[in-house]
Amino acid sequence: MDTDLVMRAQGGDRAAFGLLAADIATRFLAVSRRILRDIDLAEDATQQALVAIWRDLPGLRDPARFDAWSYRLLVRACYAEGHRSRTWSPNLRILPADEPTESRGLDAVIQRDQLETAIRRLSVDHRTVLVLHHYADIPLERVAQILEIPLGTVFSRLHHAMRGMRAALDADARSAAAEASR
Amino acid sequence: MTTERDPGTRIVLSWLREDAHENAEHVLLRALDEVDTTPQRRSWRPAWRFLDMNTNLKLAIAAAAVVVVAILGYNLLPRTGGVGTTPTQRPTPSAGSSSVPSTSPTSSPGPWVLTEGPLAAHEYFTLPFASGNGICLGDGSQPGCTDSPADDTIRVTFTIPDGWAGVGGTIWRAVEHNSPPGGAGLMFSRGGWLWSNLCATDAPPRVDIPTGTTVAEFVDALVAHPALDVNSPVDVTLAGYPGKYLELLAPDNIATNSDNPAEGECAGYFVWEPGVYAQGPNHLWHIWVLDVDGTRVVIRSDSYPGTTPAVQAELSAIVQSIEITP
To answer: Which residues on chain B are in Cβ contact (under 8 Å) with A162?
Structure first.
């Protein structure tokens, strides 16, 4: 991150902020979409986070920490969106990854569906740690800083989340095996 | 720490990283529209710091402040030969005076601000405790960290060669990171509470051993911990500040796949809060616990048996180049 740009935005330079926002918006939308599992909520969370960054930027004491600080505001926005729509919409629009090829076939579709169901069963807390670490490639120590929770809690949430996701695959494999043995 | 993946973990991670083709353009435009009508929150505290300025700039501002006070004082003095005072004009900073000092590598001749990502060989500085990172208590919540305002201004400067990267106010190897088998890193902390149970599986370990606020209290706690493999502390001076030096070695049963540890492995091996844990088997920490004018500062360099002698030498030279400004 260009710290000069951060400092100019801190001083009220809207053009500098525009460049900063353009640099992080796609990444923020991708992260929030994977946490919230809903594109509309993710867009709202990203917008909220960008506005909050602009509003609170003068209070950032160390511009070199912009990345971690801005992620913190994004996560807060995701929590707010998740809380606002506590009754998660039964949005079964699976992440529109590439359409499965013939070789991947139906199994791949079923597997993705199982994973989507499994991640929706996780709490936002668990999803957030999973996405920040394994999707955004943020080291666990920094995830702890972003979320302002102890590293042990981050570790525990990640472990729980991965166990839940792997269990979904195991269940899928077991049911497939049972189907085959009939 | 997560270099070896089981098939289930690989499938989950591959799915999580599938490209979903997000287009943030209209979100960005909506946000910028809202920003146009949103004022920034200004606190009484300046966003950039006095300590980041060079000495000449500080002196210039101090001199200007003296002049302003003198003018105000003169204007407020009772006038002889008249009644009342001459109205004073409130000094207002000119637009040019609010420009922020640059810290970009291309324009600053002194140390550069430590940024994220790969770094060019140069002298860098960081304010490791400006954004919290205090002494964490064992109450299970990060806000329990005692964020002392006294440490906010501590500035650490050091010189690095090519091949290193900035991450969260610290540095590590740009390619190998701080991970086994050959990684290395340099971290700064205040030295927080210790975990009595170092080896975690899936339950969060408890941070339950206090370490006080002094060099002796922290070092004594490390030495007294029955499960920590530490050598005898020795007196040391680093960057002109006195303290203790010791080494701490993680065991060899640290899981290389923390997502799915094997039987008998530690999924996580935690040392102290915030965020000090083993990245792999035989993780070696070199620890300097310094008294910086009454504030405890812990400097830690990390390496592994597989870290090359050349990288070890670079790390040692970086440590020796450290300067600390309280």
So the answer is: 9, 12, 259-260
